Amino acid sequence: MIFSVDYKNKNVLRIHAGLVIAEAICIPAFIFETSRALHGNTLSWAYVIEWPVLALYAIYMWAKMLKEERGDDRRSKQQAMRAALPHRDEDDDPELRAWNDYLARIHGAPVQEPDPAKRDD
User: Fold this and answer.
1) How buried is 29 (Cβ within 10 angstroms: 0-12 exposed, 13-18 middle, 19+ buried)?
2) Torsion of Cα atoms, 69 then 73 then 78 then 79, to 10°
3) Are 33 and 51 in contact (CB under 8 A)?
4) SS3 assignment for 42-70
5) Closest listed residue to residue 12, CA positions, set 78, 63, 84, 46
6) Is the per-residue pLDDT at 72 higher than 80?
7) What ranges do the domains of the chain cover?
């Protein structure tokens, strides 16, 4: 095996390549439309605004896709928040147990009986 690239690196390279291609299209198009607008084509002023907006959108999507590829999305924040909260056992809360039983009946799942060893009735 001479050279090995894992799939994550390939995806990151594709994301970078997408940004380069998008910017390579937007920048010359902006320059072209600016020169046309300055020479009297009034419709080109709309494109003078549009191309930088598209370039900025490409940068936004590039950053978002890189974040998702690296796994820095909201799931890690949610997991950290759950870890910080105290664990609440279903058997401690009769309303929670009743709600989960109700949901289980609606979705056809078997109702989970509380563990009699954990109850202090």
Assistant:
1) middle
2) 30
3) yes
4) CCHHHHHHHHHHHHHHHHHHHHHHHHHHH
5) 63
6) no
7) 7-72
Calpha distance 44→76 (Å, rounded): 45
The pLDDT value given to residue 106: 86
> Which residue from 49, 60, 10, 1 is spatially nearest to 26, judged by alpha carbons?
49
Give the DSSP per-residue string, the chain. Answer: ------HHHHHHHHHHHHHHHHHHHHHHHHHHHHHHHHTT-TTHHHHHHHHHHHHHHHHHHHHHHHHHHHT-SHHHHHHHHHHHSPP--GGG-HHHHHHHHHHHHHHTPPPPPPPTTT---
pLDDT digits (tens, 9 = 90+) for 6-50: 667 888 899 999 999 999 999 999 999 999 999 999 999 999 999
- pLDDT tens figures, 84-111: 666 666 567 888 888 888 888 888 766 6
CA–CA gap between residue 121 and residue 113 (Å, rounded): 15
